[in-house]
Amino acid sequence: MSTVVKKQVAVKVDGKDITAPEGTVILDVAKRNNIPVTNLCSHRNLKPFAACRTCMVEVNVNGKKELVYSCTHPIEEGMEIRTNTEETNRYNGACLEMLLVEHPLDCPICDKSGVCPLQDNTEELGIYNNRFEINRRNEPSIKSNPLIEFYLNRCIMCGMCVRVCDEIQGVQALDFHNRGMKVGIGTANDEPLDCEFCGQCITVCPTGALMDMSSEARGLAALFTNNESTCNYCSWGCTVDIQTKKGKATRIEPIDDENVGINNGNLCAKGRFGHHIIHNQDRIQTPLMNVGGSFKEVTWDEAYNAIAERLKAAINRGGPETVAGIASEKSTNEENYLFQKLFRGVLGSNQITNLQHLRAPHVNRFMLGCFQNGMTSKPIQELEEADVVLIFNSDLPSEFPVAGNAIRKAAINFQADIMIANPRNLVFDHESRNETRLTFQHGSDQAVANRLAKILIDNQLVDLDKAKGAVSNFDDYVSSLENYNADFAETATGIDDETFTKAATRLARNADRFFLIGNDVLENEDGEDVLNALLNLGTLLHSGGEGSVNIYPPREHCNSQGVNDMGCAPEYLPGYKCAKDSKALAALAETWGIDALNFDGQDKASDLFENCKNGSINFLYIAGEDPLHSYYKGAQVREALKTTPFLVVQDVFMTQTCEVADVVLPAASWAEKDGTYTNMSRHVQRVKRAILPEGESKPDFDIFCELAEALGSPFQNDSLEDVQREIENVAPIYKGLLPGEECRQWTPESSSEKPKFVIGGEFKKMAAKKEYPLSVIANNHMFHIGSYTRHSKVLNTLAPDCKAGMNPADAKRLEIKTGDKVVVESKNHKFELLVEVTPVAAKGTVHIPKNWTEIPVNMLRNGEEGLTSIKVSKAE
Amino acid sequence: METDEANETVAEGSSPEEETAEIDCGPAEEVLKSFPNKRRFLIPILQKIQDAYRFLPPETVEMVMAALRVKRAEVYGVISFYPQFRTEEPGKYILKLCYGTACFVKGAPIIGDKIKEIYHIGPGQTDDKKLFTLQLASCLGNCGAAPMAIIGDDTHGTIDPDKTTELLASYENRED
Hints:
- The complex is a heterodimer of chains A (about 900) and B (about 180).
- The radius of gyration of chain A is 28 Å and the shape is globular.
- In chain A, β22 (about 570-575) and β23 (about 575-580) form a beta hairpin.
- Chain A folds into five domains: about 10-85, Ubiquitin-like (UB roll) (Roll), CATH 3.10.20; about 105-115 and about 130-275, 2-Layer Sandwich (Alpha-Beta Plaits), CATH 3.30.70; about 290-300 and about 325-345 and about 580-745, Rossmann fold; about 390-510 and about 510-545, Dimethylsulfoxide Reductase, domain 2, CATH 3.40.228.10; about 775-875, Barwin-like endoglucanases, CATH 2.40.40.
- In chain A, α10 packs parallel to α18 (about 525-545).
- Chain A is of the alpha/beta class.
- The longest helix of chain A is centred in the middle third of the chain and has 19 residues, at about 300-320.
- Chain A is built from 29 helices and 35 strands.
- Chain B has about 180 residues and is of the alpha+beta class.
- In chain B, about 45% of the residues lie in helices and about 10% in strands.
- Chain B is built from eight helices and four strands, in the order αααααβααβββα.
- Chain B has helices at about 5-15, 25-35, 40-55, 60-70, 70-80, 100-105, 110-120, 160-170, and strands spanning about 95-100, 130-135, 150, 155.
- Chain B has a four-stranded mixed beta sheet with strand order 2-1-3-4, covered by helices on one side.
- Chain B is elongated.
- Classes of the chains: A alpha/beta (about 900), B alpha+beta (about 180).
């Protein structure tokens, strides 16, 4: 909820007394109270437009009757509204009849048939005989882009696609053409569509004029089975509808309902069009065993027996601490829970981690620190009503596109302050007049956050006494910021103090503030210091300011949050209980029906790959990760996997990591299993099986259960429901949230520790080295995340090549043009790729998406801390 | 709102135009300088640019997009909304044939057919010699002299198909 308080207005609709906030239009009031009013061009996410003229209602104010369009007319105190009168139906019906003159009525082959507002309204108004002469359009459909088909004969000119593209997506690729009888929609000059391909225009189109070409399946909505599930790409956690026909997952659509999930009917290109990874010829079909350097297909039993035998041997030889596991940020909570139960309960090993935790254990500490300091953060749906949004080092349109949709709505409805702190000059268009750009020099994130805090204190923008009373080490914090004066900050970040002061002033106002932190912060050495600086800034605003501070830890994949919640980290048991806490361990042992749990041995998981490399791990189980490609120390991982005596990899696709495994197990994709994901804002949401697993692949859940059985200690609870009940029992933060159908956020247990600032981590300016003058910014591409999406035919068509983004100034100096092939070289590695010269790229940096396996960005860094320094030259 | 996408599109958009003769961007720059860089001045700016070039060369549209921070689809949406805006270079004379009610009943369509027959141009089209661009007007306010047309700056009343032929021919060798 925004801090802006709106007056409540009382009205009467069809005799029913209703109150609603001032400024609400009649149609929205009616809709929210289940009073049907015909309409075709209104959408809760869009501004009123009044194109279709079919929503007329009768209003009576002070005894004076008036006929108005309900989609644009705001309510007034004492207004009496009547819908569906003889008169309004006559007017609305006539407009609809005129629309039906041109509309083709090819309903049997239309995607929207059955979910079509035009059909519904025609039926509602009882238009069975059109009085006008039928004059249907018969233009060929336009297929000039790879994904969205324009069949404009069906278009009724509601303008929803044009508006959603502009208002919600901020892209404005579509607009009206011509006027009057000739009016149409399309791109500028009918050029092929070139946009973010979010497909929001398809969602809002009421008539099937815009269609999803990623799917060949066409026809009535009733022919498809709907499966409400949660997207498996980024950690935003959108609810999706996996539509199946004849046992095949054919397309993905959002659920256009504000009460379902957290995405309010929005989706991005990956979520909507990335479904070809489900039925894919590259999927691993059977278990594989490495015999003398080549893979042989084996049965599940053979695979399980081999794994069990090697596990037992490894434990016999070196003790349980020598077997380790990497859990997946893409598996469900239940699967991750069973995975750690397999290691802790069955094998007696605490050597379990996940890649995000291995790289950045401070993210979990940051999250717990936020809780400790009282910032438990509101449900992310309320981002749509934010007053201030700080987008900190996040390429939002690529990283969390749907967050951008919510922020744009806040911009329209609340003129929210939008602060974009990023080294790159990102494109993020919205309708707020209050935007502050904090474009800082790469690597100076920490100084930005600290300078903002220093201004808040120096200018007394927050109540310092209140803050001092609430947080014990306030004075230490103030003195730790001493250095961050205007000159220092400007030299470090390149941002002038006027901009800083403006941003700090806007942050300090009475507001609901949302901090969205990008995953870039995980890549840098100073990531912990950056997060601590943001935690302190948030704490200062929370303790000394009015309103709220909502701060979400950066998470990359769909279940990066859940994998940690489930205790797949050496420090934490499920529910963030300390792994050294004997009481928690005893309770867990009792639940699991084993004698005792005790992990006093050496912690090898915190530096897992180094320990693999030096031979102290005998057995490694990687459940659905590809560290060879994605971990920042590429060479170390390669060495580690080579040294480890036995490696099991479980995945959907044959990744680079699979190729060096001893046993490869085929996992089912997200559309083939049941469970829950927890998104970055801690919403626990259901994943639903839509189709049967491909080939011999199995859900990770089944694999872990069967493996426990092969090891001779089967899990007592091996059904999803029982495991969910066990999780609720073991991790009380999940109590009442499973099976995740209600999409609720878990709330942390109240902390006994006092709020405090995290002090330490002095800011060091990281400068590029002379020989390697440029630095790399690597993150996910707009159309790719991780490496699975590279198997999606459609997403590959949108972004076939990895392109390095370079600033025009750097490009000019190096005589490089867009489309040139360049050699990118660091101290550790070099490769060739194409260049795109763009002002979005920051000067002195090169932006390289990390999704192409053939462009291993992780090898450039190869474990070196600080900025990844490179040089770029034109390829021969 | 700060964005550099507009600049980016400039770079992309200008490449296909390289084949055609380069235009002098000076007049468009002058026009843009004379207005505040606000979206609400889009139409007057386009009008002034068209006055300077007689049409809206794509390069100048790109300049307007960058200066006013409006997207390509929106500018071309506005351009296509108003028939007064032209995106192609017109003929030497703009032939406005009145299609108002009075002119229509007095035979304007027949004159239109005649023009099509001789010069092979329909509404909005330009003939091969780049002499005439035909435009149909809703009413030019000279109904007493219906059917009528405006050629360049000259008004011609009570025309008929034969007269039109002669009239248009007389423009073919003019030196003005």
